[in-house]
Amino acid sequence: MTALQPMPPCLAIAGPTASGKSAVSLAIAKRWPVEIVSVDSALVFRGMDIGTAKPTPAERAIVPHHLIDITDPLHAYSAADFVRDATRLINDIRARGRTPLLVGGTMLYFKALMHGLSDMPAANADVRTRIEAQARERGWPALHAELARVDPVSAARLFPNDAQRIQRALEVYELSGRPLSAFHSEGAAQPGALQPHQILSLEPADRAWLHERIGRRFDAMLADGFLDEMRRLRARSDLHPDLPSMRCVGYRQAWEALDAAGDAPLTAAQMAELRDRGIFATRQLAKRQLTWLRSMPERQKMACDAPGTLDQVLCWVADRIEPLQGAAA
C-alpha cells in the first residue's frame, strides 16, 4: 500500500463537465491569493485545447494554473502520476503563502488524493499491446465479458466499449493475478490526504440545465475549430485511436467521424451525427461524474443551476480560506 504524506490544507471545486467550475475558480482567484491545480485527465495533454475546453491564455494569465499541457498525447498519465505531481504542487504553493485550489472533474484523481492508492502494478507496454490486439480481433465488448469473468465488480461499473478502463483492469489482473476492484477496496481504507469536507461540489438540481450547457459548449467547440485540431492530431504518425488521449470524450467521436469521411470534408449529415454522438458521450461522462460525487457523502454540495450560486460559493470559500492562510503564516 502506498501511504500518502500529510498534505497542507487546500480547497477543491469539483463537479461534472460544464457545471461552471472554471468560471467559479477564476472568480475566487480574483479575490484571494490562490493557485489552481487542475484535476482533469484531459487537460494534461499538449495540443488538445479546443476539445478539452482548456483555459484560455487570458484566463491563465489571471491566476497560475498547474497540471495543464504537461505531457504529449502519445503518453499516458495515471492517477499515481497525478497524486505525485499534485502533492508536490500543493506543498510548493503553500510554501509560497498561497492557497492551493484544486479544480476539475476527474473523480478518480480526487479519490486518489482522499484515500490513497494501492500498490497495483504499473502500466506494462507489452501487456497493453497484447490486449489492444485482442480488442481489434474480438472487440471491446468481448473483452468486457472476459473482465466480468475475472473481475465482476469492475466489469459491472464499466460500459462494454470503455476501452481504456477495460484495458487497465485486464492489465492489472494479468500482471498481479488479482482483480482491480480489490486494489480499489484497499485504497479506500487509507486515511485521506484531502478531506471530503474541503471539497465543494457543483451539481445541478435540474439535469436538463446541464444537458443544455453541454450541447452549447460542444457547438462552440465545433465552431472554434475542433475538427481542425483533430486533423492536426491525426496527421501525426505516432498517434492512434487506442491511446488514452484519443479516447477522451469528443476526440474519440471526432476521430471516428474523420475516419468515415476519408479525405473529403464532412457532409452536413456527418456533422450532425458527430454532434449528436459527441453530446451524448459528454452527457454520459457527466452522469458518471455525478455518480462518483454521490459516493463522497461528506462533500459540500451546491446547486450550480440555482440563482446566486457564485455568491454562495464565494461565501463558502471566505469561511474557509482565511484559516488556511493563517495556517501558512
Order of helices and strands: EHEHEHEHHHHHHEHHHHEH
Largest sheet: 6 strands, parallel
Structural class: alpha/beta
Helix content: 40-55%
Low-confidence stretches: 1-7
Mean of the pLDDT scores?
89
- Largest sheet, spatial ordering of strands: 3-2-4-1-5-6
| Total strands | 6
Shape descriptor: globular
Give me the Rg, rounded.
20 Å
Number of helices: 14
Strand content: 5-15%
**What's the N-to-C terminus distance?**
33 Å
Describe the structure.
The chain is α/β, with parallel strands linked by helices. The protein is 54% helix and 8% strand. The chain has 14 helices and 6 strands. The chain has helices at residues 21-29, 57-62, 79-95, 107-115, 125-138, 140-150, 152-156, 163-176, 180-188, 207-223, 226-234, 251-261, 268-294, 309-328; strands at 11-14, 34-39, 65-66, 99-104, 199-203, 300-303. It has a 6-stranded parallel sheet, with helices on both faces. Strand 2, helix 2 and strand 3 form a beta-alpha-beta unit. Helix 5 (125-138) packs across helix 8 and helix 6 packs across helix 8 (163-176). 37% of the residues are buried.
